[in-house]
Design a protein that fits this description.
With about 210 residues, this protein is an alpha/beta fold. Helix content is about 30%, strand content about 20%.
Length: about 210
């Protein structure tokens, strides 16, 4: 059983909420249109909406490894293939240099789309799983107006979204994902991911209540 006092945690991500309708007017999102946090700059996220994992590591005494995060700045259009290729390589190289770790927290929005795939989150999770193996926890908690895909289900140990609108609980939900990862490692939690697609389209005004 894992010693939960000495967990090693990696924080990587590409947090982008894509609006494909903007692409024609703005052009694709490129890497220079994203904010970046590298290395110990990840610790600057402490106390923020996406800083829940940082807070938990500090409070629990877990080792937060130098990470890399690409964060949406001002461009919400479709992510270019080259942008995703470069960002993903840096994230994977970062994780590869840190092996082994106990938990990987993926900081993703849930509604990311690349020109060549509409499943940014699942594509990243699949690649991370192939690198870190089955015993490392991969968790995420993001925005509630995102998507669920087979790749996300098959490659993440636990994922959830915020529950409030406005999204005042994102930090809290990210903390929950971290606690759940530790509980799984300790053999105290045994979540079984599952989802079902229903033939239903809800009015936009009702999807965030």
């Amino acid at each position: 059983m894992k010693n939960l006092k000495k967990l090693r945690v990696s924080y990587v991500g590409f947090f982008h909420e894509t609006n494909t309708y903007l692409t024609e007017g703005m052009g694709e999102t490129t890497l220079d249109r994203m904010r970046s946090f590298r290395g110990d700059e990840i610790k600057q996220l402490k106390g923020t909406a996406i800083g829940g994992p940082v807070d938990v590591c500090e409070e629990k005494g877990w080792e937060l490894l130098p990470g890399v995060l690409f964060y949406i700045d001002w461009c919400f259009s479709t992510v270019s293939d080259q942008c995703w290729k470069d960002a993903k390589k840096e994230m994977m190289d970062t994780l590869k240099s840190q092996l082994p770790m106990d938990i990987v927290y993926l900081s993703v929005h849930g509604a990311g789309m690349v020109n060549n795939t509409n499943d940014l989150e699942g594509d990243l999770a699949e690649s991370v799983r192939a690198l870190v193996g089955k015993d490392t926890m991969i968790v995420w908690s993001g925005d509630l107006h995102g998507k669920v895909t087979d790749k996300m289900k098959d490659n993440m140990n636990f994922f959830s979204t915020c529950k409030e609108y406005p999204h005042m609980d994102m930090n809290v939900c990210a903390r929950d994902a971290m606690y759940r990862a530790a509980a799984i490692l300790a053999g105290e939690s045994h979540p079984t991911p599952a989802y079902r697609r229903v033939p239903l389209m809800m009015p936009v005004s009702n999807t965030e209540q």
